[in-house]
Amino acid sequence: MKRRAFTLIELLVVIAIIAILAAILFPVFAQARAKARQATCLSNQKQLGLAILAYAQDYDETLPPGNYSAAPLAGNVGWMYMIDPYVKANVPYSNANLGAAKLSIFVCPDYGATPYASTFLSPTRSYLVNRMIFGGYERNLPSTYWEAPKSLAAMQAVAQVVMLAEGAGGCVWAQGLDDPAILSGQHATFQACNRYYILGRGRHGGGSDYLLGDGHAKFYRAPDPSFADPGTGPTNVVPAISSGTVAFQKSVSPNAAAWFWEN
Q1: In whole angstroms, how far apart are CA 133 and each of 52, 89, 116, 203, 261?
Q2: For the chain, how big is the Rg over CA atoms in Å?
């Protein structure tokens, strides 16, 4: 018995059906991959939180400084290198030392999609610590701006105070400040680092992951839009002011002028 072959019309119909199914399913697959990357980022922060808390237990319940510089070092040493012995991720000292090594848990998988990420080229510093509690002694700031890291007891409600947030690179700490009026009166380094945080706070579908003081990590949505970009570089973006349920300093209730930041 002679087999009947597909006609051209039938083949075109099948191809059209496959194309329609692909158009429907591909965005779903893309969203699933994005969720997987966000889950990896959340896991990264959880592991880093355990390392930070282990460090604090070894140093009289005192957090590591966000940054410090000491002779004979030529530059600053970030918090990542102080807690690396607890996670053994072998975080490279700089991009030049990265070579063919894989990016570690100190880097969010979606880092490359962050606005201006290619400007910083800082895959060793995807996360920012909370300057309000980690402090810092960095070389590029006058000593009047140096702050000692605080103890774990300084966090008044540990489930709400930020320890780690996401950033665009370029800085290893931020205050979480998003009020342009307050930003404009700060030292240039503080302005830059807070804006680098703003660039990262919408990394995962309009929000980002945060590590909180008790060691748990959680997703929080950013304002939409998160910032206005005049197109003159990352240090000139204008943040949108929002409000949230976590704070970079105190965990009472963030004031209306800033997100995650209050005196």
Answers
A1: 12, 24, 27, 24, 12
A2: 22
Report the alpha-carbon distance of residue 204 to residue 51 in Å, rounded: 24
What is the pTM for the complete model shown?
Answer: 0.81
pLDDT digits (tens, 9 = 90+) for 180-230: 888 888 899 999 999 999 999 999 988 899 998 888 898 988 888 889 999
Please tell me the distance from the alpha carbon of residue 155 to that of residue 248, in angstroms, as a whole number: 10
Identify the DSSP state of 198: H
162: DSSP letter: E
Every domain of the chain and the residues it spans = 10-239
| pLDDT tens string 34-49 | 778 888 999 999 999 9
The helix or strand, by DSSP H or E, that contains position 50, with its residue range, turns out to be helix 8-58
Check the CA dihedral 115-132-220-56 and report its sign.
positive
- How many residues are given for the chain? 263
Decide: 105 and 89 in contact? Cβ < 8 Å: yes
Residue linked to tokens 């848990």: 105
Q: Is 99 left (phi over 0), alpha (psi -120 to 50) or beta?
A: left
**Contacts of residue 98, Cβ cutoff 8 Å, sequence gap at least 6:** 92, 123, 124
> Burial, 204: exposed, middle or buried (Cβ in 10 Å; 0-12, 13-18, 19+)?
buried
Residue type (1 letter), 184: S
Q: Centre a 10 Å sphere on the Cβ of residue 85 and count the other Cβ atoms it contains.
A: 12
Our CA angle for 81, 165, 73, nearest 5°, is: 25
